[in-house]
Design brief:
Layout lengths: L9 H8 L2 H9 L14 H8 L2 H9 L18 H17 L1
């Protein structure tokens, strides 16, 4: 895994910028979805903080864990649109059982 001096991966940067195609390519190539940077931020954190709902959903589909998102002064809570997405996914899994 390639990591820069600040312990950031390409997936973290792609999530920050909201580059859906880059995120998709990196995830399909085996990038670690829940890798945390030096300050503890994951790709999902950056997608949520920057409002990139499509990237956040993609990360969730690839196994990103909401519990690994560190809340701070910039992201004080999980956005409502994402909480709805998580709940819908849970309901779909339950109905498929």
């Amino acid at each position: 895994m390639d990591v820069n001096k600040r312990r950031e991966t390409a997936l973290l940067k792609a999530s920050w910028f909201g580059s859906m195609e880059c995120c998709r390519l990196l995830l399909n190539a085996g990038s670690v979805v829940d890798f945390a940077s030096g300050d503890g931020c994951t790709s999902l954190y950056w997608a949520l903080r920057k409002g990139h709902s499509d990237v956040a959903t993609l990360l969730l589909e690839h196994g990103a864990q909401v519990s690994n998102v560190v809340l701070d002064d910039y992201l004080e809570c999980v956005p409502e649109w994402f909480a709805v997405c998580v709940e819908r996914r849970r309901a779909c899994r339950e109905s498929a059982k």
